[in-house]
Write a structure and sequence with these properties.
Layout: E1 5-7, E2 18-22, H1 28-39, H2 47-54, E3 57-65, E4 68-80, E5 83-88, E6 92-93, H3 102-116, E7 121-125, H4 128-131, E8 137-138, E9 142-143, E10 153-157, E11 165-169
Parallel strand pairs: 1-2, 5-7, 9-11
Antiparallel strand pairs: 2-3, 3-4, 4-5, 4-6, 4-11, 7-10, 8-10
The protein binds coenzyme A.
Residues 38, 91-93, 98-104, 126-127, 129-130 line the site of coenzyme A.
Amino acid sequence: MAEPRTLTPDDAPLSGVAVVRVEQAGDGETIDRIVLEAFGPGRFAKTAERLREGASIAVGFVACLDGRVVGSVRLWRIRVGETPCLFLGPIAVERSERSEGLGAALVQACIDHARTTGAAGILLVGDAPYFGRFGFARIEGASLPGPVDPARLLWLPMLAETVAGPVMIG
Ligand SMILES: CC(C)(COP(=O)(O)OP(=O)(O)OC[C@H]1O[C@@H](n2cnc3c(N)ncnc32)[C@H](O)[C@@H]1OP(=O)(O)O)[C@@H](O)C(=O)NCCC(=O)NCCS
């Protein structure tokens, strides 16, 4: 497979290659299906989902194969204590298209966006064995509005080395 690359919203869909582009209004239904298939309906009970319910999307990215959306990720505006930052998730790639680097390309698109917009850092709830490769590491002192496995609360520092306090919508 060709190396995924990030497109701007103005780029035309390409054929026969994998690309990551900014999420557009018409992608919503497909994203909902991919996320539901990956996590099941149980995800709505999760603390991360409670936080996202009231938050606004800073940006979303989709991964496309031959112009077909097969993966997605979103960044949400939050604050940890007094510090505005970004919350990543959910990230999902269709089962049949996994292990081809699309997940990594989606995470990298988020990181690039956060860096270019001068974010303090990115918070997420996820598996350290996956997100550690991008520089995410366990953070203590940030408290979400509900129970979270502390081993899965991860932070990628950018302008702020760390953050602490209650996690709220930004
Ligand atoms: C996580 C996910 C988005 C990765 O997408 P992807 O396109 O397969 O990602 P990549 O191709 O960049 O990386 C795949 C590698 O990560 C590994 N990996 C995937 N999920 C992992 C996890 N939760 N923990 C540790 N490693 C993981 C895969 O085993 C694979 O390893 P390999 O390259 O040695 O085969 C995808 O597996 C998915 O949609 N999972 C279900 C939803 C989910 O659990 N999302 C949140 C993860 S915390």
